[in-house]
Structure formats: structure tokens, C-alpha cells
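Continuing from yesterday's entry. The apo prediction looked reasonable, so today I'm repeating it with 2-acetamido-2-deoxy-beta-D-glucopyranose included to see how the binding region is handled. Same sequence as before; SMILES copied from the compound registry.
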Amino acid sequence: MSGVEKLVILLVAVVTVCAAVWPIPYRRFDSRPKTDAFCQALYPFCPTGHPDGSMPKMMDSDVVEVFSMKAPVWEFKFGDLLAHFDIIHDAIGFRNNRTGLNYTMEWYELFQLFNCTFGHVLTDMDPPLWCNQGAACLYDGIDDLHWSQNGSLVKVAEISGKVFNELADWVHTDNNTGIYYETWMVRNSTGPDSKLWFEAFDCASFVIRTFNKLGDLGAKFNTSVQTNYTKITLFSDQPVHLGNTSTIFGPKGNKTLATEIRTFYEHFQAHQPFPSLLKSMLEAFDTIVLEKKWYFFYNFEYWFLPMKEPFLKLTYEEVPLPGRKEVTLA
Ligand SMILES: *[C@@H]1O[C@H](CO)[C@@H](O)[C@H](O)[C@H]1NC(C)=O
Ligand SMILES: *[C@@H]1O[C@H](CO)[C@@H](O)[C@H](O)[C@H]1NC(C)=O
Ligand SMILES: *[C@@H]1O[C@H](CO)[C@@H](O)[C@H](O)[C@H]1NC(C)=O
Ligand SMILES: *[C@@H]1O[C@H](CO)[C@@H](O)[C@H](O)[C@H]1NC(C)=O
Ligand SMILES: *[C@@H]1O[C@H](CO)[C@@H](O)[C@H](O)[C@H]1NC(C)=O
Ligand SMILES: *[C@@H]1O[C@H](CO)[C@@H](O)[C@H](O)[C@H]1NC(C)=O
Ligand SMILES: *[C@@H]1O[C@H](CO)[C@@H](O)[C@H](O)[C@H]1NC(C)=O
Ligand SMILES: *[C@@H]1O[C@H](CO)[C@@H](O)[C@H](O)[C@H]1NC(C)=O
Ligand SMILES: *[C@@H]1O[C@H](CO)[C@@H](O)[C@H](O)[C@H]1NC(C)=O
Ligand SMILES: *[C@@H]1O[C@H](CO)[C@@H](O)[C@H](O)[C@H]1NC(C)=O
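Holo prediction written out below.
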């Protein structure tokens, strides 16, 4: 190999390492691991779901209606206290016109939202423990009142039974490989073209993914329907990769960094009494706003976020249904 060739290879290697691809792709797994025995659901996951997540089998010639369904999250889980936060849960409904049977499909946290958002700090030695799995749940029936009273239930497409069955295969693969829930989206700034560092992976991203898959399978959507989704965004300058649990908290890890991460997550321990939760949330506010630090967990790895204004924002933005023609202004 000539010196020039070596130099070219070296340069290519340097560029590959330095030019991180943003957003960082959400990691897919070969299969879903067992959850840690510590993780216990306050509300059981998918209590009325089909055993093993089996999907109903349709006849190829069936006509299946598809619905976009939305409901405020906090209302039905935590009472009115948090109802004023505009956090909307998204789901998909299906109705077989031949049988008249209908189904609800949603993707959500196995151990509730707070557990997916913050890790548990159990001792002053161990790394935070994450109960952050999320999964798809399909059950019989659509509770029209639940979705339409304070949210919405809108028909968005009609598909064939054949397309539904193809979608069912995809849902199983997606469910076995996309195993963890990610609450936050992370961007560089509020502008629409701002750099996206990390994508969320939540109930809404599942619905968007599924609609796009249906579009790929040939479904025609009623693109007059406007579909908006909740986004919870953190704002930071370019994130810095720190490592995973073993490289940070293992024997060769950086003890200072390990302590900083534990201290950060200690602020967000839901199982403490309310006054101390409030106190630590205020401390967290100091860390985030005054020191501009966030230790972000993504793909089971930690990243440092140099936080900046407006720090955190909740928005309700449109992601159009597949097939909408771009309107170009003259
Ligand atoms: C979160 O996980 C912990 C530990 O398993 C569990 O006790 C708690 O009920 C879960 N849910 C919430 C909302 O904290
Ligand atoms: C997705 O995975 C979860 C967790 O293993 C399981 O309970 C659920 O039935 C699966 N859902 C589908 C639609 O396969
Ligand atoms: C399916 O059933 C609904 C409700 O009965 C009806 O509005 C719709 O026209 C039907 N679609 C087809 C293609 O049969
Ligand atoms: C779903 O089925 C139930 C029970 O038959 C019915 O009450 C409800 O109106 C149906 N909803 C939709 C959107 O098809
Ligand atoms: C809709 O909101 C009202 C007022 O907050 C509440 O009383 C009602 O139970 C809600 N309906 C559903 C289906 O959650
Ligand atoms: C991030 O946003 C800042 C302004 O807040 C801008 O100066 C900078 O170029 C942006 N960086 C990237 C990588 O987009
Ligand atoms: C498409 O959606 C619009 C807006 O919700 C609605 O007015 C219209 O009736 C729908 N068209 C069909 C064919 O369902
Ligand atoms: C953690 O990162 C190291 C170095 O990149 C890698 O060798 C190891 O397999 C990772 N551990 C896990 C559990 O992913
Ligand atoms: C260890 O982590 C601290 C805090 O993040 C950092 O300031 C320091 O440079 C790190 N030390 C090494 C050897 O990487
Ligand atoms: C839906 O999103 C669009 C564009 O993102 C926005 O203009 C509109 O106000 C949103 N609708 C609601 C009800 O928030």
C-alpha cells in the first residue's frame, strides 16, 4: 500500500468517526429481552390484549376501515391534576366491514411514562436501572366514547384484508426489534429547519410509522384529515457521546462522570414522598437551566446535552398522512 493510499484510508476513517449521522438512528434489537424483575407495572400492560400479540386474520377480500384515534393522556391515568398539559395519546383503530368487528392498536410503556423517562437510582454504587420498554398492544373493540369525547376518532383510510395481514407481519417484526420507549426529541433550536439530534420513540411515532407502512403497502389515505402529534422536545447544542453502562460504571469507568449521572437521575425518583420529589425537581431545574446539563439516555447509551434555551418545549404539530401532495406556493 502506498503512503497516499494509507493517508486516504486514514482520512476516510477520521471522517466516518467524526461526522456523526444526525439524528442518531434509533437502535433496533434482534429480539426483546426479559425485563428486570425490579420493574413492576402500576397498571398492567395490555390487560385485554390478544395472547402473544396475535393479530386477527382477515380475508384478502375484506374491507377494513382505519381510524386515527387520540385522547388526552393524563386525564384517564392521573386525574385532572395534569389534564392541562396538552399531552395526547395516539392509537389506531381497525374495523372489518364483513364481520363488523373492530380493534384498537396502540404502542405504549410497559411500566408507565415516568419510568421510561428517568432511570431508577437504587444505591450510590449502581448505574441507574431503566424500566423503559415499550410495545404494541392489540385488543378487541374500540371504545368510541373514550376517544371521541375529549379527543378524536376519525376515519383515515379503507384497506383490503390482504393489506391488513401484511401490516400484521410488519407489526410483529417492529414490536420485537423496537423495544424501548423514548420520551424526548432533541433539537438544536426551535426553528423548523433546526438540526435534529434525536428522534422520540413513543405512541405517536408508532402511529406515524404504521400509517407510513400502510402507505407503502398501497393504502390511500384521506389526506384532508389533519393529524397532529404531541412532541416533547429538549434543546441542546451538539450532544457528546459518553458511553454505556459498562464503560461508564464499570471498573474502567470514569468515577466522576458516573457520580454526575447518578446525581442527575436522583432528582427524578418518583417513589419518594411528594415534598422531597418537589425539592429534587427544583434542584434538577438548577442543573438543567443554570448549569445547562442533561445526561440523556438513548439506545442504552449516555450522551451529554449542553442544554440551551428554551430548554424544554411541548408542542402539538402536524405530521401529514402519507400521500399528501406538496403544495408549492407560486
Ligand atoms: C415504575 O417502576 C417502579 C419500579 O418497578 C414501580 O414501582 C412503579 O410502580 C412504576 N410506575 C410508576 C408510575 O412509577
Ligand atoms: C409486543 O410485545 C409485547 C411485549 O413482549 C407483547 O406483550 C405484545 O403482545 C406484543 N404485541 C404484538 C402486537 O405483537
Ligand atoms: C364499511 O362500513 C361503513 C359503516 O357501515 C360504511 O360507511 C362504508 O361505506 C363501508 N365501506 C365499504 C367499502 O363497504
Ligand atoms: C366498535 O365496535 C363497538 C361494538 O360493536 C361499537 O360500539 C363501536 O361503535 C365500534 N366503533 C367503531 C369506530 O367502529
Ligand atoms: C372528558 O372530560 C370530562 C371533563 O374533564 C370528564 O368528566 C370525562 O370523564 C372525560 N371523558 C372521558 C371519556 O375520558
Ligand atoms: C445550532 O443552532 C445555532 C443557533 O442557536 C447555530 O448557530 C448553529 O449553527 C446550529 N448548529 C447546527 C449544527 O445546526
Ligand atoms: C376526508 O376528511 C375530510 C375532513 O375530515 C372529510 O370532510 C371528508 O368527508 C373525508 N372524506 C372521505 C371520503 O371520508
Ligand atoms: C458498551 O460499549 C462497549 C464499547 O463500545 C462495547 O464493547 C460493549 O459491548 C457495550 N456494552 C453493551 C452492554 O452494550
Ligand atoms: C471524567 O468525567 C469528568 C466529568 O464529566 C470529566 O470532566 C473528565 O474529563 C473525565 N475524565 C477522563 C479521564 O475522561
Ligand atoms: C396542528 O399542526 C399545525 C401545523 O403543525 C398547526 O398549524 C395547528 O395549529 C395544529 N392544530 C392544533 C389543533 O394544535
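Comparison notes:
- Residues 244 and 301 are 4 Å apart (CA to CA).
- The two ends are 56 Å apart (CA to CA).
Will overlay with the apo model tomorrow.
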